[in-house]
Amino acid sequence: MPGTPYKKNSLVILVALALSACTTISPQQLSEQALTEQGHADRGAALAEAEPISGMLTIEQAIARALKYNLERRSRLMEEAMAFRQLDVSHYDMLPKLLAQSGYSWRDNDKISQSRNNETGELSPSQFVSQERTHTLSSLGVSWNLIDLGVGYYNTRQQADRVLIAVEKRRKAMHVLMQDVRTAFWRAASAQKLRAEVQSTLALAEQALVDSRTAESERLRNPLDALRYQRQVLENLRLLEAIDQELSTAQIELAALINAPIGQRLQLAEPEFRVSRQALEIPVTRLEETAMAANADIREQHYNARIAREETRKTLVRLFPNLSFNYSINYDTDSYLVNSNWNEAGLQLSFNLFNLFTGPGQLKLAEAGVKLADQRRIAVQMATLAQTHLARQQLANALNQFERADAIWSTDQRINGHMQNRQNSQMQSQLDMVANQTTAILSLLRRYQALAQVQAAEARLQSTLGVEPRISSVDDLSLAQLTDDIIRSQNTWGDFGQPTVGGE
Predict the structure, then answer these.
(1) What is the structure's pLDDT at 427?
(2) Which of 65, 138, 502, 64 is nearest to 332 (CA)?
(3) What span is annotated as the signal peptide, if there is one (predicted)?
(4) Which end of the chain is more exposed for a tag (fewer CB within 10 A), N or C?
């Protein structure tokens, strides 16, 4: 046929061009400039919505800032919002499919057909053109499938439970965040309180070390006594430097949690702390009941078990015979058609015979998933009960340690007063001054550390029980309003009852 080789060559060229286009894509590494620019842009975006910090920062303001501006918490909120969007989309899976389509057809020669005589086997000399070389076909149809409807229904129910799981994960992240902020705030407060004293005592110890080495070199005192003196000064220096290193990171950790500029110096308002044993006065059975009802991990496992049961029902639906219905309106521009417009409908009942063999295995698999989800829920419940008792005991231990550290600090304060009097009367050596100030700093640091442990233990118990602040949506509240809500919800144990869950 004329032109056939040319057409084949053209087809070969088109295929070769398509293949060459697919093989020319190579990895494109980001340049350092692009990474730097994106890093600056991301840093600006991270701090764009955060209100600047002015004046003294209280612990309630720090918690409010963390709840509103912490980047990891924003990710959790976006995951929750994404789960809600997926639920909205999954509702459409239960709707019938409405399909509009239009196509264009072209061929380079006529579609010609012949007829053969059934009795003689001879071809008819007549040749019939049954279709135009170019024509378009358009249709609008609706189809409905019984199995798709059932599977879509249970998929939507499962997605609704996944939304609730996302809520529980957000709650758990909030509990951990509040615990970290409370611990970091007290560490930063102790750093703010002790930094000046540590630096001045370090300078005093360094000077005492220099003086001792000078006295040793000039033979002004026994060399062994001088070395023992230096050993004691160096030991005090080691303790002071360890304290300084521990305190140096506290502000950075707190700034990262509340999404504040890392280089900004935070001025913290140290809150008044009073020892309270209200949490320990609540009956353990009451704590256990609250944890079983409100703990985020337990609630998540309940929803996972419900998803597993929905999976069993979905498997059953797939094993049923399928009923499908379709109806369409069609139009074709082919002039050889007598009826260019027509409506078409169909009803079909089908059944996959292999389901007779695979069905029992699929059901057993789904039932195994249910048993696994139930076992995980039981394991988490027992672990949570143990964690409730453990968190309560840790709080009791932390309170005892704080009371002991507070008593030691109070005693050291009284000793320091007597040593100051001796210093004023010039009856105290330089080594005694360094040792005394180092001891005072250590006792105050341990008091703050014990206080931070009390805060962490109390927050851990609240997280285990599922207790959280009674606040409205974080996005709807201003920072000042959110801070006021946190202040009002501080008396957790005094108003202890059924905790408010998922208040955001």
Answers:
(1) 39
(2) 138
(3) 1-21
(4) N
Task: Work out whether strand 322-332 and strand 341-350 pair parallel, antiparallel, or are unpaired.
Answer: antiparallel
Residue entry with tokens 């009097």: 421
Q: What is the DSSP letter of 442?
A: H
Q: Name the amino acid, one letter, at 504.
A: E
Q: Please state the separation of Cα 177 from the chain's center in Å.
A: 11
Name residue, tokens 């059932």. Answer: 150
332 DSSP β-pair partners: 137
- E-strand ranges in 351-390 read none
Its sign, for the CA torsion 401, 403, 404, 410, is positive
407 in Cβ contact with 352 (< 8 Å): no
Output the pTM of the full model: 0.76
User: What confidence score (pLDDT) does residue 387 get?
Assistant: 92
Structure-token match 């929803």, residue found: 303
CA pair distance 395, 455, nearest whole angstrom: 9
Over residues 267-283, mean pLDDT: 79
Neighbours of 10 (CB within 10 A): 11
pLDDT in tens, 67-126: 888 777 777 777 777 877 877 877 777 778 888 888 888 888 888 777 777 777 777 777
| In this structure, CATH architecture of domain 49-105+146-488 | Up-down Bundle (1.20)
CA distance 338 to 273: 93
**Burial class, 63, CB count within 10 angstroms (exposed 0-12 / middle 13-18 / buried 19+):** buried
